[in-house]
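Researcher: Please translate sequence to structure tokens.
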Amino acid sequence: MKNTWKIYMLAVVSFLVGTSELIIAGILDKVAASIGVPVSVAGQLITVFSLAYAFGTPILMVVTSRMDRRKLLIYSLVAFVIGNAMTAVLPGFLFLFISRIVLALSTGVFIVTALMVASKLAPPDKQGSGIATVVMGFSTALVVGVPLGRVVASFYDWKIIFAGLGVLGLLAIVGMYSLIPKSEGEEPVPIGKQLALLKEPRIAMALLITFFWIAGYSIVYTYISPFLLSVTGMSEQIVSIGLFAFGIASLLGSKFGGYSSDKWGVPRTLIGSLLVHALALILISIGAMSPIVMFPLLMLWSFSAWTSGPTTQYNLVQQAPEASGIMLSLNNSVVQLAMAFGAGLGGVVVEQVSLTFISWIGAAVVTVGAATAAASFRLSRSEARRKNEKRKLQGG
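Model: Translation complete:
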């Protein structure tokens, strides 16, 4: 496949933009100390990023739908460089807050566009693999980018991470211009048409599963570094290793989610992974004081949480196969809204109750997600039975 290396380049740049999104959670305590705000306030940097991504990306994609895809990739990376420069150079919480908005919009537009370009660069029978490669590049940020950023922040000013991302963004712009071919835009899908699908109960419930899964996860993950440092008592080095192990487990979980969905079906995989996810968070609450116990629990949590990833997406596509692109776009926005909600609620819990309590709250939210999944599958079965009965009556 002659375009394979171009798709891999898109994946590498996706790793960069993914790192800019996810790294804050890995260094939240250092960011808070540097700008002189509580950890709970610094956590809202994740909230604003997710809100800007969720609401801004669909609008920008509609506005720029007819633009040449290569040009859009370059423009989004220009904004990415500006956002990282703002983070690295400008002082204070307000400018950091604004830079997160700029980075959210640039990340959202780049990722969506890169997925579209990858599908066009790949042969017709390999489009799924091309898209998966770009997604894997973004996911690798959790495995490599976050723990590596933690290590860098342990020895240097955390802002150097964003300065480095900005410089690499400049190189990425050159790569996009030189190597990615021009490609025409597409007819926009109106926001109204996208939202119209939410009127169908089975689709709304399927998206609610995503919301509760990610919200419960985000409540804890947003504050995982302060939790491991102050509650569990891990050292800086052990936290970095823990975050690396967490990322590896997330990749394994994603792979297992796809395998399990094919072998045992979506309902068993999704409900089971959500229940194990909730159990892992409860065990983290119980074993919070022991670094030795915490390590395998972190991996169990990450593995079970990300097993739900491909399963929820597959479930959504099954609900409306004729509108799979819109469904995945809606799911992406719901993911970001859930991350914003989780980071916000986690901040309230940390500020008003205790850092030790976040995993209990996260477990409760994920359990609601498991219950929603069970109700959703019952609804789908009921609808399927009604359709079969109607067909039998019409046939008779």
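Researcher: Any highlights?
Model: DSSP finds 16 helices and no strands in the chain.
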